[in-house]
Specification:
Shape: globular
Oligomer: single chain
Largest sheet: 7 strands, mixed
Distance between the termini: 43 Å
Strand order of the largest sheet: 1-9-8-2-5-3-4
Number of helices: 11
Structural class: alpha/beta
Number of domains: 1
Radius of gyration: 19 Å
Length: about 300
């Protein structure tokens, strides 16, 4: 797709405070020139080291997995947790690599399957919201969508100005539109109405601004915006997931059937429907979901104590 990025404003980032960032970026960029299978092997090592040394995050991820899959044994939950840390370690290298490598090289890493519902929505000129949970390969799926046509997604501003510029350019490399999370709602609605698919990531802890609906079994503070977005933009909601293939073989992006009778007009019911759609995707590859996030950090007022 088109890329309308302005020339990189290097003059803004020459101050000494940015030198460590430049050094780190240079090292990472050199590493990402390596073949994907090598990056995957290196990342596995990083992930296993993090699993052994990062007791806090390891316990958070295990608690999340065990709470969402109470039917699994402790050993089964631990196995998922180890696989998850391996994938997170790989993403340390593969995420920046996907932002920097050439478009053809990136496309060779992507396999898009089960896209009949997505293609039908495009062919009938429907406005589209892509429900994209936080799987480890999330960024690759977003790039794959925007390689075909300009798409929109939200991002959170980074305090380090240089990193913010790098991330914005990387994630918007194919001409997609990045909208800051705190931007007025009308910007997002306007873009969806123009026909750009909205790659929407709504499944992290929403704090006290969220509503409490079940996520698997525990109640989770969840952003109740998907139904509103769909109604205001007259959009169909299509689940999409990105799977990291084993041993650095690339990614598999797949689209599900649109959410039925959505939106219903009931924010709580619509938010629950969204969570259930996310759950269904997670069950197909639980090790790939971003369990290290404190998904259940914010608790309902009637619950005493902390989750973690």
């Amino acid at each position: 797709m088109s890329n309308s990025l302005k020339p990189f404003p290097i003059g803004l980032f020459l101050a000494p405070k940015y030198w460590p960032t430049w050094l780190a970026l240079g090292i990472v960029k050199l590493i990402t020139l390596l073949p994907l299978r090598v990056l995957a092997a290196m990342g596995h090592g990083v992930g296993m080291a993090a699993y052994k040394l990062g007791a806090s995050r390891r316990k958070i991820a295990f608690k999340n997995i065990q709470s969402c899959f109470p039917e699994l044994s402790t050993a089964e939950c631990e196995a998922i947790n180890k696989q998850h840390f391996s994938l997170v370690g790989q993403s340390v290298f593969t995420v920046p690599a996907n932002m920097w490598i050439g478009a053809k090289r990136f496309a060779s890493r992507i396999e898009v399957i089960e896209r009949e519902h997505y293609d039908k929505a495009l062919q009938t000129n429907r406005n589209i919201i892509l429900l994209a949970p936080h799987f480890v390969g999330l960024d690759a799926g977003g790039f794959a969508v925007s390689q075909e046509r300009d798409a929109i997604t939200m991002y959170q501003y980074a305090k380090n100005g240089l990193m913010d510029e790098i991330v914005k350019r990387g994630r918007g490399r194919y001409g997609g539109v990045l909208i800051e999370r705190k931007a007025p709602l009308r910007q997002t609605i306007k873009a969806i109405r123009k026909g750009m698919p909205f790659y929407y990531l709504p499944d992290q802890d929403a704090g006290r601004k969220g509503v409490f609906v079940p996520f698997f079994h525990p109640l989770a503070s969840t952003v109740p915006m998907l139904g509103k977005f769909a109604k205001m933009s007259n959009a169909v909601v299509i689940p999409v997931k990105t799977k990291v293939k084993p041993k650095g073989k690339g990614y598999e992006v797949s689209f599900g059937a649109p959410l039925e009778n959505f939106p219903s007009g009931d924010d709580m019911a619509d938010t629950l429907t969204m969570n259930q759609a996310v759950e269904a995707m997670i069950r197909t590859m639980p090790e790939q979901y971003f369990w290290v996030h404190k998904r259940f950090k914010t608790r309902p007022p009637e619950e005493e104590g902390k989750f973690y």
